[in-house]
Amino acid sequence: MVQGVIIDNDGCLININPATGDMISKVKCTTPEQLDVIIDTAKSSQKEWRKKSVEERVDILKECIKELTDVSDQMIQLIVQEMGKPIAEAKEEMEYAVNDQDAYFDILLESIKPKKYGKSTVVRHPYGVVAIMSPWNYPLGEIMLLALPSLASGNTVIVKPSEVVPETGALLVKTLQKCLPPGVLQVAQGAGSVGEALVKHNGIDLVAMTGSSATGRKILEAAAPQLKRVILEMGGKDPMIVCADADLEKAANDAVMYSLSNAGQVCCSIERIYVAETVYDKFQVLAKEVAKDYKVGNGMETENNVGPLVSMMQKEHVKNQVEDAVFKGATMLHQSEIPNDVSKNESCFYPVTVLSDVDDTMKLFTTETFGPVVAIAKFDGSEASAVRLANDTEYGLGSSVYTQDTEKANRIAELIDAGQVGINCYPIEFMGVQCPWVGHKHSGFGYHSGKDGCLQFSIPKTIVSATD
Ligand code: NAD
User: Fold this and answer.
1) Which strand (E) or helix (H) includes residue 121?
2) Which residues lie across from 297 on neighbouring strands?
3) Model-level pTM?
4) Counting C-beta atoms within 10 Å of the first and last residue's C-beta, which end of the chain has fewer, N or C?
5) Is pLDDT above 50 for 2?
């Protein structure tokens, strides 16, 4: 994905507010020498941390969640400042990070506790030191998703937050550290090169990255010589299928909402909307009407429900995709206003954009967009075409199908090659805490969340006792 990272001559990240262009802070990048020290500390702390029972570790993590709740206002402000999302969405991210964790911890305990089979006991063995590389789009939530199961499984953790949102990651680590033994959780700051140094360091035992598929590939290559364990949650190009018999108002509403959520900067954003030809015209009218209710502006102001893009480079990337689509024949149905009172030219706002007649010759349908764009195409309405078009991508993260025919919906859902499929909904809307978060094809390599996800952060070991 495209970022706007600036590092000054003193080796500091220049942390910019994308809504105003103002500098928030300078954050010192971790040097290779400092990384050695951090990793040594993590190694020695892990010896004691792994000796605690999983119940003890989870009790400590529950205390960490309470600490996090205490800084929620500060965290929400920081997320909006660094990343730009509307304050309501930052609050949701905070709530997601602290609510329902007891239910998740129950699943975690159940998943990783020892299991006895006759004379054999299968225990879960921690990997050791886990390096977590996180993206900027959910600067708090994405770290939590990987850090909690890593720590509960008996690993120690080094978090490298995205270079675009370093302070949110730093505040999170500082807050959780209050309840954790020294050295169990630490932070390293910097751009991709610091992540790469972590991946290549022989003190790191497991690498867990959430980010783009391009970075995932680089990490796999860097981890290969040491056959290092790797978990990758990567990009998406999620399809939405709207059949002729769908509830069109709901479909149009969801299509717009989940194309524009977080200004479209969501791994499972709806990025390709295929509408049956008999309802295509009506759908376009509905989608355009819904999109008119979205207002772009500074996320700190509550009337704005679409914030800026995270950086100028990200804005350029989205602008290029839209221009390419229009040049190749897409129809511009709607483009919103953007704030015109921004004092600096540096603002990252991009208008809410609704395009129809999009096709697979356009970058908008082949490359992850990550912007506030609703991209609509027509299809013949058949099940075979729905499945073919949905799967016509290297990605396989989320997807959805809208139809009132339940059997047809299930047949299509069965054949879509994606980790999550929503039937008449956006999958994330109703996913239970028991469900894993999975990327098929180039969207994932390993996974997290739910019972299956918890198991990824430790390795089974069978102890067979003749005397038992
Ligand atoms: P990115 O790939 O640029 O960076 C992700 C993290 O990896 C950052 O911390 C970055 O510094 C680090 N990194 C970069 N190069 C590295 C290298 N060579 N070695 C080790 N670490 C390196 O991603 P981004 O722009 O921060 O985030 C947006 C991307 O994340 C999108 O593609 C989005 O779809 C994806 N994402 C996926 C999920 C999911 O659950 N599948 C969730 C959120 C975001």
Assistant:
1) strand 120-126
2) none
3) 0.96
4) C
5) no
